[in-house]
Amino acid sequence: MKKLLACVLILAAAAAIGAPGATAQQYPTRPIKILIPIPPGGAPDIAARILGEKLNESLGQPIVVENRAGSNGIIATEMLAKAPADGYTLALIADSQVVINPHLYSKMSVDTLKDIVPVATVAANEFVLSVNPSLPAKTFQEFIELARKANPPLAYASGGNGSQHHLSMEMLRQRAQIELTHVPYRGGAPATTATVSGEVAAMFAGSSTAPQIRAGNLRALAVTGEQRSKMFPELPTIGEFYPGYSNSIWLALFAPAGTPEPILAKLHGEVTKILEQGDVKDKYNKAGGLDPYTSSRESFAARLREDYAKFGKLVKEVGITVD
Fold first, then answer.
1. What is the pTM of this model?
2. Which domains does the chain have, with CATH numbers?
């Protein structure tokens, strides 16, 4: 009897040890939820739905995209951090929610470097410096010279305090040593409308403003990427004038901390394969000029730490607070 009991205990222990591996090997066995921190229609939402369709095909389980907008993305980030670490709740979130928000909100309940973990990079974009066509500046250099002489300072629009639009312009203001007046709006779309109408002189916006630029409603002067834009190859990078200046925007898939490594590895592999498909690239380009962004998890983890430090320093220097 004792020998039988001992055998049962040994088998139970072995099963317990093997359970995580077995679960990861069989994953997924039910629908996967992807949280989105914005309302339907924006670039992260579109990117998630394109990715979700492909993951449905490759994983054989439904992918449910759930929009949880509010508090500059904090609601979705907190929901992710509190979800079970089993691979069935993920979030497609932008860089600002992970590397900027923690420096803006002193009362955030989530440590974005510890409570959530990156699964895979998904998409990247860059900003275009655009001005109202009535502005005399026809080139980036002319814009800088105009800004230096303007009294009162030129006003620029952003998608809100602490947004990438805001910080990109503050980075330029510091490097070029110019004075500008910040006018925050509730999102990139209202900021674009304000620039087109002439309420403000300039703005940084994603390449989703290409139709406005093509129509002549905005005049594009430069881009923030490290290399010239495929969409606007004629435009210089700001780094050509101020070496080291660059600011690209990324979207990435995250999971709750503690999610089993085999599940993270499987998801990373599937997402990477999907992003290499030609039709996905075409769909991303049409969804506001997004480019598929693939990276090893190790390289992206290093970038997270670098971006976190960079924006923490910038937010402190500019003195931005949201609380």
1. 0.81
2. 31-125+249-318 (3.40.190.150), 129-240 (3.40.190.10)
